[in-house]
Design a protein that fits this description.
CBS-domain; 12 helices; three-stranded mixed β-sheet; four-stranded mixed β-sheet
């Protein structure tokens, strides 16, 4: 779902990260507030005041989204659900759930917690606004506080729309799940409604665009495309999870991975392996035991003239931890590990021996077949 992420800080044990796409929206929000919104409603201030208001307004929105997603995460943890962190991206933020909720009640509680948090923030900023009016605070502060009250209320209302995977859509799925006691059916219905809302936003974007509101039109169009794509992907992920649940990774792995010995010279590795198999990653095996791994990035660091004198064993790094998984591990756990580490392949081991490699491509093949059969 995400590309390059920047780790910011940890909050209550959750890693908060920033997707590169958030920088785009942060600049746009700051610019639109400083050039358009605040000058229109708070006239006769200096240009510097408007830009400071824009910066603090964007930072306040940044903090509000983190608070919204943190509330989801805290409720999930209270119900025993692991959360893989919080990421801010182009369309807001997301708390990464590594598994589906155990029951409809947990799903509903988690979903509704975010909008409630946003409403509480809106009320808090409205209270600050009343204090600023009675206390004769600077108009610049009044403007920022008022904006944050409005934007948090808008965030709560938008997320309460019954469009999966928005919070309202998740709450609606929980009610359908409780009614039929069928998570897959509930997700299919909620995803279709979410996809329909996405189409509605796309049409709204086109109308705004034709009416002359270019920026607003493009924004609603992209938001609709994202909602439609997310709704479809959420259903596919559920099918994948249910297909893999209870299945060991040994069932889906490639049992004859290409390996290299630690004594192999780097130039020979390039000629006999890289140019032949076109892999970017090679396990290093000695006496049938996994001793490390070597990647293309490591190879490129060695000057061409030194590759004949350097060996794989000199460059190989330890592959234990997130790069390996036991043969008997549930395939769902392998998928969760890939999502968390952004790795497309994992080495499957048994008693420190390499017995295979499981790739995201292997798992997606199964997903494709399941989608065709379910359709």
């Amino acid at each position: 779902m995400f590309g390059k992420k920047i780790k910011l800080f940890r909050l209550f044990g959750f890693q908060v990260s920033l997707d590169i796409s958030w920088l785009i929206i942060a600049v746009l929000i700051t610019w639109s507030l400083a050039v358009g919104v605040f000058p229109e409603y708070y006239q006769d201030l200096s240009t510097a005041d408007y830009w400071w208001m824009g910066i603090f307004g964007a930072l306040g929105l940044f903090g509000s989204i983190i608070f919204h997603e943190l509330t989801h995460s805290l409720v999930a943890r209270r119900h025993g659900m692991p959360i893989g962190g919080i990421t801010l991206f182009l369309f807001g933020g997301v708390a990464h759930m590594t598994e589906e909720p155990a029951n409809p009640r947990t799903e509903f509680t988690m979903a509704i917690a975010g909008p409630i948090a946003s409403i509480l923030l809106a009320v808090g900023f409205l209270f600050l606004r009343s204090i600023s009016l009675s206390g004769d605070w600077p108009r610049s502060v009044l403007g920022v506080v008022t904006y944050l009250a409005i934007i948090n209320f808008a965030l709560a209302v938008f997320n309460l729309l019954p469009a999966f995977p928005l919070d309202g859509g998740r709450a609606f799925r929980a009610m359908l799940w409780r009614w039929k006691n069928d998570l897959k059916w509930a997700t299919r219905i909620a995803s279709r409604i979410g996809s329909a809302f996405g189409v509605l936003l796309i049409v709204l974007g086109v109308v705004f665009f034709l009416a002359g509101n270019f920026v607003g039109g493009v924004w609603w169009f992209l938001l609709g495309m994202f909602l439609r794509m997310s709704a479809r992907m959420s259903y596919r992920q559920l099918i994948l999870r249910q297909s893999l649940e209870g299945e060991p990774v040994s069932k889906f792995m490639s049992a004859d991975p290409v390996t290299v010995p630690p004594s192999l010279p780097i130039d020979q590795l390039v000629e006999d392996y890289v140019y032949r198999y076109h892999h970017k990653f090679y396990p290093v095996v000695e006496d049938e035991k996994l001793v490390g791994c070597i990647t293309m990035d490591q190879i490129k660091e060695v000057p061409r003239e030194e590759r004949g004198r350097r060996t794989v064993g000199e460059l190989a790094r330890d592959c234990s931890g997130d790069n390996t998984i036991a043969a008997g591990t549930d395939a769902v756990q392998a998928l969760s590990t890939m999502r968390r580490t952004q790795a497309s392949r994992l080495m499957v081991t048994e008693n420190h021996r390499l017995v295979g490699i499981i790739t995201l491509k292997d798992l997606l093949k199964l997903l494709s077949m399941k989608i065709d059969l379910e359709s």
